Amino acid sequence: MEVNSIDEQIKDTKKELEAMLAYPDEKLIDIIKEVGFECDLCARCCTKEFNDHVFLLDKDTEFIKSIDPGLIKPAPYYEFCDQNGRFYVSGYALRTKEDGSCVMLEGKRCTMYDRRLTICRLYPYMLHRETDEEGNLDWRQISGLNEHGCYHSEISEDEAEKIAADTKAYEEAYLRQQIRFFRKVREHFKKNGLRHVKSVYDRKMRAFARGEEIEVYVYYKDEIELSRISANG
User: Fold this and answer.
1) How far is residue 103's CA from residue 110's CA, in Å, rounded to a whole number?
2) pLDDT band for position 135 (50/70/90)?
3) Closest by alpha carbon to 201, among 78, 73, 91?
4) In terms of Cα–Cα distance, which of 178, 193, 206 is closest to 2?
5) Alpha helix ranges (H) inside 23-117
6) Which of 22, 140, 182, 186 could form a disulfide with 130 if both were Cys (CB 3.0 to 4.6 A apart)?
7) 104: alpha, beta or left, given left = phi > 0 and alpha = psi -120 to 50?
């Protein structure tokens, strides 16, 4: 990825941030009240059946590191790979077990429920643009609708307002972290004469799938930390 392309990604992410912040609070509140989601403790949202990974904001990463640094791993879907075969990703994710369930899940119960992470507290609410099955780009506010949990429960105006505010706050924090990450990679590439190379990305990912170790720079607190991982562990 050339520097100009990174600049475009920063520009696009800023536009997405502006659009998200401008999304009418009243509309999101009405959707939340209409959906009326209530957790029924099925724990399906804590498995790969519904969620690929739990992305961590910097503050969540800091909290998990204070418990056990071994509970996190570089988030999947690396954004860049330089000509030397090192990947770059915008943050960490919680580890999962072999069956795909969250590392914090035991007997269908979260072992840190009272201290659960930002995104876990908000789920299934969200507010970002996403392409649907027909390729149309539009806002998505709820994940897994009618596939888990209970619906049409009564949610008070005050509660809906808080959920809406917290949802937008999370999305804002996520997008701002993305922007800082892009800027950091741009700076790192320029300083070290690096560039994103798609062919190297593809080759290293094939090697990773075969079990070879790869090196991943993970963005955290305006620095990039080097991790070495393999598909087998």
Assistant:
1) 9
2) confident
3) 78
4) 193
5) 25-35, 58-67
6) 140
7) alpha
Residue-wise DSSP of 15-42: HHHHHHHHS-HHHHHHHHHHH--B--S-
Q: What is the pTM of this model?
A: 0.91
Backbone angles phi, psi at 62, to 5 degrees: -60, -40
As a whole number of Å, the CA-based R_g of the chain is 19
* DSSP states of 192-215: HT--B-HHHHHHHHHHHHTT--EE
Burial readout 127-161 (b: 16 or more C-beta within 10 A, e: otherwise): beeeeeeeeeeeeebbbeeeebbeeeeebeeeebb
What is the three-class DSSP state of 233? coil
**Residue recorded with tokens 């498995």:** 47
67 Cβ contact partners less than 8 Å away, ≥ 6 residues apart: 112
Listed in sequence order, the DSSP H helices in 103-156 are 118-122
Which tokens belong to 186?
């741009």
CA distance linking residue 144 with residue 45, whole number of Å: 9
For strand 214-220 and strand 86-89, is the pairing parallel, antiparallel, or unpaired? parallel
Q: Which residues contact 12 (CB under 8 A, 6 or more apart)?
A: none
3-50 confidence digits (pLDDT tens): 569 999 999 999 999 999 999 999 999 999 999 988 888 888 888 877
Per-residue CA distances from 29 to 19, 21, 34 (Å) = 17, 14, 9
Indicate the pairing of strand 86-89 with strand 80-81. Answer: antiparallel
Contact 4, 186 (CB under 8 A): no
